[in-house]
Amino acid sequence: MVLLDHLASGLIFSSIIVLGSIGLSLVYSIADFANFAHGDTMTIGAYTSLVTFGAIGGLGGAVLGIPFGFFVALVVGMAMAALVAIVTEKVVYEGMDVDSIGLLITSIGVAFVYRAVIQMGFGADAVRYDIQALRPIEWLLPYNVRVTEHDVAIVVSAAVLVTGLHVLLQYTDLGRKMRAMADNPDLARVSGIRIDRIKLWTWVIGAGLAGAGGVFLGLYNLLSPRMGFNLLLLIFAAVILGGIGSVYGAMAGALLIGMIHELTPLLSQLGRVFTFLPEGFGLPIGNQYGSAIAFVIMVIVLLFRPQGIAGEAV
Amino acid sequence: MSAGTRLQTAWADLTRAEQGVTGFIVGFAALLLFGLLSGGLAPTYFLYLVGIAGMYALLSFGLNSQWGFTGLINFSVAAFFGIGAYGAALTTADSSPLAGGFNPLVGLLVALVLAAVLALLIGIPTLRLRADYLAIASLGLAEVVRTIVKNESQWTNGTAGVRGIPSFFEGWPVLATFPEAMPGLEIFVPFGARIVLGTSFWSALLNVSLVLIFVGVSYALLRRVHRSPWGRVLRTIRSDEDLARALGKHTYSFKMQSFVLGSLIMALAGVFYAHLNLFVSPGDLDPITTFYVWVAVILGGSGSNRGALFGGFVIVAIREGTRFLNEFAWIPFDVAPLRLLMIGVLIVLVMRFRPQGVLPPQRELIWPSAVDEAPSRPDSGVREAKAGGGDE
Which residue, A190, B11, B244, B331, has most beta carbons within 10 Å? Predict the structure, then answer.
């Protein structure tokens, strides 16, 4: 089945988008603006872990074909992304006297600064992590599924992070405060929640997850200064599809967008998927249209359900 | 009253920001003049720069009538620009994969129609929604347009781009042969270089006059419509859409009209670009163009066409100025990201310290006669009027 392989890569790509879209959705609902610098925060995470991994090396053993050192680098990358986000919040956004649209425009400037600095340091060309590329897992090949252990590691790590966030949001004090603030900032404030502190934690969590997403994106593809900005639109599509401000909606949206993106190549070979169609049948849409189809679907969803899958009415 | 004192009163009438901008423009013009006379700046290249600046001014006008007046966050400037350029290129070029070789005026018309259709396609799903949805959706749809232009090579020649675009005045009675017919001039500047004005200079001069006409017409048109009742509704929508709706205005249709109008002006810039550069490629639809124009508008002052004009020139100064830095080998990093960095820093600084822009709209939105007749202070104080009438 050709479909299974595409579903598998859809799942992998979705896990990367999930990490980005959760952070974006959190910041969207708590800091109350569409953060266009989110994609470049992912790039920061990826490049930081590139440097860290280059410095510390593999550190002995490996899990799922990934050296221990890489996991250390992952954590450092997440921390760096969070640090940069906090510094940006403190230096740029905090003292600003503009509405959410003004913040949106500012965040584009911030995104350019991030990207320009990375490009100055590392050049415009794509680089890769110094990790041996693996062959697809043997016992899955008969099913026509070509998945490496790295891909499994990406999905598992993303699942761990997402579960961690779920626990944090549902069962901890901080999570309850964050949900309260996303729901109604004024009410949260009069209830005695220190909203400045919650906002900082939101940036830490959102940017940290974005950093992790960036690292996995670099592992899945390559690292380049534009990698985050290129993915940003898909992440926005996921957030909008899921409903702005809803973390669980963002997860569902990310899964959907990732699948759509990776299933697009099938459109040109529909005949091989559906037995009732002639063998050579296919729509003349190449796989370079993956992102385009995701945006178009996002727009169509906006037409009929502007609040998204899980969002409240606008 | 002598010319000197008149100049002095005019200077005193300006706000401080206006004085600063005027000073900047005078200084910059002096610098350019020095460059021209000393031979450091070739006249043809200078005219090319003026043309590009005019193009950015047009794009800024377009965005200004969407964002500055109506508050529509359009991040698909590059798409409209590209549609304009490709529309003109594909209709007029010899090498066009579609029916080419038409008169450039036909190309202009085709480009405008295409832009209007694209504006409707983008506007219909997004203009009903919250402002930030339009931002995201328009950026996404601009990427869709770019992907299509890049990949559908049977229509657009794909990444190879379209070559062989004629100049805009091809096939016109006198102007078509004007550059060849003009004699080559040589100018000797005392203590400076010898300046040769050949065929390329005259055709560049034609291009500049074309863009000046485009800019002038759009400026006059926008100035007129934005002072009209229609323009006042747009500004109401920008500051409070619910209010406009409560006053019985069909805001969706006003927003759509404003969106289409702005998009047409952007497409006009694209048409000019196609005939200036004589080559278009999918690279011209890169989203960075969109953000250049955004910088121009917010730097100049959202809602101010003067500001947009000023912003357009600043962008060209940044874009072409950083190009000179390439010549300095001692700079330890790539210069290309420096431009990106400057754009980014400029956006942050403007939004952080002067969100209204350098030249925010002031008198230009009001009929001059209304300003002259209005008393400089109200007959009775606002406080007394309130204290007398209100029961708050």
Answer: B244
| The pLDDT of residue B258 | 93
- Whether B347 and chain A come into contact, CB under 8 Å, resolves to yes
The type of residue at B333 is: F
Domain of B221 in residue numbering reads as 41-285
Phi/psi zone of residue B238: left (φ > 0), alpha (ψ -120 to 50 degrees), beta? alpha
What letters, b where the CB count within 10 A reaches 16 and e where it falls short, cover A280-311? eebeebeeebbbbbbbbebbebbeeebbbbbb
- Sign for the CA dihedral angle at A144, A149, A155, A156 comes to positive
Query: Quick one: pLDDT at residue B301?
Result: 83
Bridge partners for B181 per DSSP: none
ipTM value of the model? 0.84
- Beta-strand (E) ranges in A64-176? 66-67
3-state secondary structure at position B162: strand
Q: Is residue B277 part of a domain?
A: yes
Q: Which of B151, B341, B346 sits opposite A117 (nearest CB)?
A: B341
Interchain contact, B133 vs A302, CB within 8 Å: yes
Instruction: Pick out chain B residues at pLDDT < 70.
Output: 1-3, 39-40, 174-176, 180-181, 183-197, 325-334, 362-392
Tens digits of residue pLDDT in A263-274:
887 777 766 666
Do B144 and A95 make contact, defined as CB atoms within 8 angstroms? no
Other Cβ atoms less than 10 A from the Cβ of B185: the count is 12
Any A CB within 8 A of B126 CB: yes
Distance CA A77, CA A73 (A): 6
Q: Is residue B389 part of a domain?
A: no
Q: Parse chain A into domains and list their residue ranges.
A: 2-225
Residues in chain B with CB shorter than 8 Å from the CB of A288 are: 147, 150-151
- A12: tokens are 């992998």
Residues of A in contact with B298 (CB under 8 A): 105
Q: Which residues contact A39 (CB under 8 A, 6 or more apart)?
A: A20, A111, A228, A229, A230, A231, A232, A235
For residue B275, is it within any domain? yes
Question: Is B183 a member of any domain?
Answer: yes
Question: What secondary structure does DSSP assign to A111-140, as a single string?
Answer: HHHHHHHHHHHH-SS-B--S-PPPPPPGGG
Identify the bridge partners of residue B187 per DSSP, sorted by sequence position: B195
Number of domains, chain B: 1
Task: In whole angstroms, give the CA distance from residue B215 to residue B56.
Answer: 10
Q: Strands A62-63 and A66-67, how do they pair? A: antiparallel
Burial of A114: CB neighbours in 10 Å, binned 0-12, 13-18, 19+:
buried
Q: Is B312 helix (H, G, I), strand (E, B) or coil?
A: helix
Q: For residue B389, what pLDDT is reported?
A: 44
Q: pLDDT by residue (tens digit) across A112-165?
A: 999 999 998 888 888 888 777 777 777 777 777 778 888 888 899 899 999 999
Candidates A95, A121, A303; nearest CB to B125: A303
Residue B297 tokens read as 């508008």
Q: Quote the strand ranges of B2-48, DSSP E.
A: none
B270-295 core/surface letters (b: 16 or more CB in 10 A; e: else): bbbbbbbbebbbbebbebebbbbbbb
